[in-house]
Amino acid sequence: MEVIMAARKLNLKQKYGHFTRGLDWEPSYQSKDDIFPFAKYEGIKVHDWDAWEDPFKLTMDAYWKFQAEKERKLYAVIDSMAQNNGQLGITDARYLNAVKLFIQGVTPLEYQAHRHFAHLARHLPGAGLRVAAQMQSIDELRHCQTQIHTISHYNKFFDGIHDFTHMHDRVWYLSVPKSFFDDATTAGPFEFLTAISFAFEYVLTNLLFVPFMSGAAYNGDMATVTFGFSAQSDESRHMTLGLEAVRFLLEQDEANVPIVQGWIDKWFWRGYRLLTLVAMMMDYMLPKKVMSWAEAWETYYEQAGGALFADLARYGIREPKYADVAKAEKGHITHQAWTIFYNYTHAAAVHTWDVDDQHLAWLREKYPDTFAQHYEQRYLNWRDQADQGKRFYNNGLPQLCQVCQVPMAFTEVDDPTTISFRVSEFGGDKYHTCSDGCKDIFDHEPEKYSQAWLPVHQIFQGNCGGATVPEVLDWYHINQGADNLDYAGSPEEAQWEKWMEGRRPAAPMAVAAE
């Protein structure tokens, strides 16, 4: 009698091997260099692609099961919020400016990440890395969609959320996150992995998601908290991908070490400058504060990052260049960013306001060495002017950093009364940067950064809808007088009034008395 043996169940490692390397094949009629043209583009040397190991050993069947469960829970919360008028539960309408910054500046980056990880899933030679990149691509698309679905509830009741993708490509302060990702996606595949998966996801992501999600919880926005938690397990895999990718490159060949170190230096600084917007949100836009930017930086970079780079030292990797500058600036950067937005709030899709006494006391407590000495009197003067009906506006356009594209308002590390200003020359032209970090990045790749699309330059050239601020804001798709209520008394008020003629809704007709 023939005995039929049941097939032995594969263990996790065997199953993962079948679903990754088991799907790979050796090309027969095309060379690998032609199939994967970007693999050697950056000078990275990889001798054994099979040495890549995914610590999670996650396969697609398990992936879809986990994600479906998270979706079910998330949309239950979103539905509950809509049915119970969750917008009425937030602490203060000012909190919505943080939500606007998130959907205008961060959500489009999730979609860009989705597209480029899909690109890596095609162009990385290693099967294990390709599968990891494919899963992250799907993750990023999901994050983009869930953020849009969650925040769309607020779009029914508040302005400034309606056309965020259009704004992301055009509005001046959104060129900061957009240029960051444009820079990363136009790099090679390994630099992109280092930039996004390591420098941003692993080193800096806690400084983005923890303040935003904790800030949402403190201010009654439970729907935003839920999509943050829904994404958190994905982020843990993304962070692991970044760390493992860097370790993989460092272990493959000693020649990779200086290349990777250069990328870490560059993308740490670019990510740090991008987080200026998050830092300002933490200290100024949350009615109920979670922690100060300085406290967050100490917790999530100085302590966690210090341990990380101590571990990577065995590969010859040191802490990023200019990390000491970022540490020294933590008492200044948020106040300087708020100053920029206060100056130009008549041209933004978010609001700013004068700091009240309670907020001033909190800032003095959190920044005892810098705030009272360098910033408080400025705020008091602005508040006095506003009380007299002379709210301060800057009547010009700022100079922008050629690399990070933040207006040039940062100060020298050793002199907070002097604007930090650096100049580089290339092709017979002069280019201005805000710091030694941005100057180093420009000088290393001037051909790339000399082509940067700078909003102020484009406005002066007439490429942004017209020559006046109202025309530019119309080109931005900002609903003037709705998204932005801060133009009254500004230098452009007369132009605004003329621009708004015929655009305001008609006044309701008076009902004749019976």
Automatic annotation (TrEMBL):
Keyword Oxidoreductase included in the entry's annotation: yes
Keyword Oxidoreductase set for record: yes
A single MF term (Gene Ontology): monooxygenase activity
Bilayer-crossing regions: none
Domain YHS: from-to ranges: 422-453
InterPro entries in UniProt: Ferritin-like_SF (IPR009078), Phenol_Hydrox (IPR003430), RNR-like (IPR012348), YHS_dom (IPR007029)
Domain of life: Bacteria
Pfam families: Phenol_Hydrox (PF02332), YHS (PF04945)
Annotated signal peptide: none
Keyword list, A-Z: Monooxygenase, Oxidoreductase
UniProt name for this protein: Aromatic/alkene/methane monooxygenase hydroxylase/oxygenase subunit alpha
Source species: Sphingomonas floccifaciens
